[in-house]
Amino acid sequence: MLRIVAGLAFLQHGLMKIFQFPAAAMDGPLPPIMLAAGWLEIVGAALLILGLLTRPTAFVLSGMMAVAYWMVHGAKGPYPALNGGEPALLFCFIFLFLACAGPGAWSVDGMRKK
């Protein structure tokens, strides 16, 4: 359940960046790093929701969120509650957990093993 819910929540961030749905993430054109992040969020979230290639996908997304935290939020101060970095921090460690724990029973990866 954690993998599916985290994937659905993460998907929203990519959809906002790339398709401005349900709202635009930023005004104007996105810088290339934000476009790359948006596509990683969409594709990675879809793979996590399905439970396909879960471990490598979660590992890449965990690293992406660690970089995002330090580039965007860490520069604003050391406390996640004050620098707005709590979601990035939580996603980073949820994805790291999924990379270690695997996809679980309700996954394409789990069905392929049977």
Radius of gyration: 14 Å
Spans of at least 5 consecutive residues whose pLDDT stays below 50 are: none
Q: Please provide the ordered H/E string of secondary-structure elements.
A: HHHHHH
Structural class by secondary-structure content: mainly alpha
Number of strands: 0
* Fraction of residues in helix: over 70%
* C-alpha end-to-end distance: 20 Å
**What's the story with the biggest beta sheet?**
none
In percent, how much strand structure appears in the residues? under 5%
Mean pLDDT over the residues: 94
Annotation field: number of helices: 6
What is the overall silhouette?
A: globular
Total domain count: 1
Describe the structure.
The chain is mainly α. It has one domain. Helices cover 73% and strands 0% of the residues. It has 6 helices and no strands. The protein is globular and about 45 Å long.
Sum this structure up briefly.
With 114 residues, this protein is mostly helical. The protein is 73% helix and 0% strand. It has one domain (2-104).
